[in-house]
Design goal:
single chain, 333 residues, 3-stranded parallel beta sheet, 13 helices, 5 strands, 53% helix, binds tryptophan, Rossmann-like_a/b/a_fold, aminoacyl-trna synthetase, EC 6.1.1.2
Length: 333
């Protein structure tokens, strides 16, 4: 048993998954779940959703939508524990508190991810927001996970988790591994607009996993391009982003073909976009079919969450007991 590695990943419950999440995270998880050397935990980080303004009327249903997306992408509950963070709120937040004793306020305030949120929500700079990375470290360390499939944007948070693990091990003799990010080929999925990455919060930037062929075509049609021809293939902006998507869904060769066209006869974007839309849809179709099946089985989904939480709780509780002892809360006269 000694060599089994634990893997945990999570995603905030802010809405349905899009292509960026799929390529950046879910694909990594799928790779790992078929490897018997790993024990897998996938959660919906619904507590993290509460760190910025959210709608309490839809939080629970949105979290379940994400679970449905996970399962339709191919996460298998027999192989992976799928659960809601809030179903283990008492354990995750308890560890968050213990971990917070080795983290300074200044370190948290200087994180780029924190600064971004402060800019985005200047009226809502709460303690919960400041604690975001500590809660994330708790999510990971409570299972002593060594590998974390997640997007590259989460690297600063993983750095914090590693620091915390080191400090805890030094100060209290715990044995937390220093978790590293498990990257995938498509970890940076560009936006359909001309800058940034595909993101749920930027309208026009994403393709949803549930989009049908027509919708994908429409979304791609709106993506900015140029005349299709020039001396050098653009390395940033709308065209560069389209070429990255071509590579992700149709392969490197196809991309090279278009790059050659760009500097010779010119790219016809209408054709490129139609082909790309079809390639993307080919990947999404089986996922959508699975989702329709699962939508008819809400009881099954609840059972998956319950089983997942039960499995996770056993390990989480053990870590908490250990930490309490090592930090001096247990013992007695
Ligand atoms: N912060 C992550 C995101 O926004 C979500 C998350 C919460 C997470 N807890 C985690 C990711 C633990 C990996 C591991 O995507």
């Amino acid at each position: 048993m000694k060599n089994i590695k634990r893997v945990l990943s999570g995603i905030r419950a802010t809405g349905r998954l899009h292509l960026g999440n799929y390529l950046g995270m879910v694909k990594g998880m799928l790779e790992l779940q078929d490897n018997p050397g790993y024990e897998i935990f996938y959660m919906v980080a619904d507590l993290h959703s509460m760190t910025t303004p959210y709608d309490q009327k839809t939080l629970a249903s949105t979290a379940r939508e994400v679970v449905l997306d996970y399962l339709s992408c191919g996460l298998e509950p027999d192989k992976s524990a799928v659960f809601l963070q809030s179903d283990l709120a008492e354990l995750h937040t308890e560890l968050m508190f213990y971990l917070s004793t080795v983290v300074t306020v200044a370190r948290m305030q200087h994180l780029p991810t924190f600064k971004e949120k402060v800019k985005q929500y200047p009226q809502n700079v709460t303690m919960a927001l400041l604690n975001y990375p500590v809660l994330m470290a708790a999510d990971i360390l409570i299972y002593k996970s060594s590998d974390v499939p997640t997007g590259i944007d989460q690297e600063p948070h993983l750095e914090v988790a590693r620091e915390i693990a080191r400090k805890m091990n030094e100060a209290f003799g715990t044995d937390f591994p220093e978790p590293k990010r498990f990257g995938t080929r498509g970890e940076y999925v560009p936006s359909l607009t001309d800058e940034g990455k595909m993101s749920k919060s930027v309208e026009g930037s994403y393709i949803q996993l549930t989009d049908d062929l027509e919708t994908i075509k429409k979304r791609l049609a709106a993506a900015p391009t140029d005349s299709g021809r020039g001396q050098a293939v653009p390395t940033a902006g709308g065209v560069a982003n389209l070429l990255t998507l071509v590579e992700l869904f149709e392969g490197k060769e196809k991309r090279k073909k278009y790059e050659k066209q760009y500097v010779t006869s010119g790219i016809r974007y209408g054709e490129l976009k139609t082909e790309l839309a079809e390639a993307i849809y080919r990947d999404l179709k089986p996922i959508q079919e699975k989702r329709r099946e699962l939508e008819k089985k809400p009881d099954y989904v609840e059972q998956v969450l319950k089983d997942g939480a039960d499995k996770a709780r056993k390990i989480a509780q053990k870590t908490i007991d250990e930490v309490k002892t090592k930090m001096g809360l247990k013992g007695g006269l």
